[in-house]
């Protein structure tokens, strides 16, 4: 059975990797005033962080159902099935849109997958699915593998300013106000598909050390992991952190990614995260 793999743009998988593994992408949108940009197509992360300095904070929107239907129909000419890997259904309607669109096409079997997180850890699922699909694995087996990986997936991040999350409705006003008043750098993570505080920590340095310790606890098993450092316009800091983490965790394969326009809108510049799962 020939299986295609779709990922939404919030996975921020580099184009060369998408091309290498034949991963199709459907973009979410960032809207500045009356101008909409498809992230990763019309707007890069670097361009986004520059625009934010010049304009009011944008809003974001998921792909319209018609985009999914059009892509599914195009893929149905070559494939029997498609796996769609999406950011957490608790913070976006993209996964639900994929399900709705799947009922509107007849010539292809659609398998939506809720990553329950976002950014490059979401991308790990898509790359694994694509590798297995190119290897001729059955779609059902690929979905089983993604569920296996989900049991080992972790992602923690910290932001410089909680107001972005609060304004976008991804964090309660009370949590944001308390964090701002106390000048804490709360560690955030996904729990039951939504973003919630994990621990309250006073400084950025201590927050990053705590994230590193959490990775170390899992990596201490000696099993092989893949991990990704994710930054919001803080590449130099990410490179330095990668070097430190790699020296401490020889059984972990590290990469660097970024919070692109859609996720960056809700986290703000300066956010830093780390995600990992077993290989």
Q: Return the string of H and E elements.
A: EHEEEHEHEHEHHEHHEEHEHEHE
What proportion of the residues form beta strands (DSSP E)? 25-35%
Q: Report the principal-axis shape.
A: globular
Lateral strand order in the biggest sheet: 10-9-8-13-11-12
Quick one: biggest sheet? 6 strands, mixed
Could you report the average pLDDT, rounded to the nearest whole number? 93
Work out the helix count: 11
Terminal Cα separation, in Å? 25 Å
Supply the helix-strand structural class. alpha/beta
Percent range of helical residues: 40-55%
What Rg do the Cα atoms give?
18 Å
Please, could you describe this protein's structure?
The two termini are 25 Å apart. The chain has eleven helices and 13 strands. The chain has 279 residues and is α/β, with parallel strands linked by helices. The mean pLDDT is 93.
List the helices and strands and how they pair.
Layout: E1 3-8, H1 15-20, E2 23-26, E3 29-32, E4 35-38, H2 45-54, E5 59-61, H3 65-75, E6 81-86, H4 94-102, E7 109-114, H5 119-134, H6 139-150, E8 154-158, H7 163-167, H8 173-182, E9 187-191, E10 194-199, H9 204-219, E11 225-231, H10 235-248, E12 252-258, H11 261-267, E13 272-278
Parallel strand pairs: 1-2, 1-6, 6-7, 11-12
Antiparallel strand pairs: 3-4, 3-5, 8-9, 8-13, 9-10, 11-13
Q: TL;DR?
A:
By secondary structure, the chain is an alpha/beta fold.
What structural keywords apply?
11 helices; four-stranded parallel β-sheet; six-stranded mixed β-sheet; 279 residues; single chain; alpha/beta
């Amino acid at each position: 059975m020939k299986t295609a793999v779709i990922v939404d743009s919030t996975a921020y998988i580099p184009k060369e990797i998408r091309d290498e593994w034949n991963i199709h992408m459907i973009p979410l949108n960032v809207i500045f005033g009356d101008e909409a940009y498809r992230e990763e197509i019309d707007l890069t992360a670097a361009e986004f962080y520059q625009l934010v300095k010049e304009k009011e904070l944008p809003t974001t929107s998921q792909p319209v159902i018609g985009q999914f239907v059009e892509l599914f129909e195009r893929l149905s000419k070559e494939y029997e099935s498609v796996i769609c890997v999406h950011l957490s259904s608790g913070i976006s309607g993209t996964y639900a849109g994929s399900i709705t669109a799947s009922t509107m096409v007849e010539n292809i079997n659609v398998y939506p997958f809720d990553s329950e997180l976002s950014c490059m850890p979401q991308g790990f699922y898509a790359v694994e699915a694509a590798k297995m699909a190119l290897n001729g694995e059955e779609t059902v087996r690929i979905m089983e593998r993604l569920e296996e990986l989900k049991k080992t997936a972790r992602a923690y991040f910290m932001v410089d300013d909680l107001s972005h999350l609060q304004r976008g409705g991804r964090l309660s006003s009370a949590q944001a106000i308390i964090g701002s008043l106390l000048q804490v750098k709360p560690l955030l993570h996904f729990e039951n598909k939504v973003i919630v505080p994990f621990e309250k920590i006073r400084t950025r340095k201590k927050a990053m050390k705590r994230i590193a310790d959490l990775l170390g606890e899992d990596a201490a098993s000696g099993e092989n992991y893949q991990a990704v450092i994710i930054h919001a316009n803080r590449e130099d800091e990410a490179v330095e952190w990668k070097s430190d983490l790699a020296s401490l965790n020889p059984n972990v394969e590290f990469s660097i990614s970024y919070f692109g326009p859609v996720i960056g809108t809700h986290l703000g510049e300066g956010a830093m995260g780390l995600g990992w799962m077993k290989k």
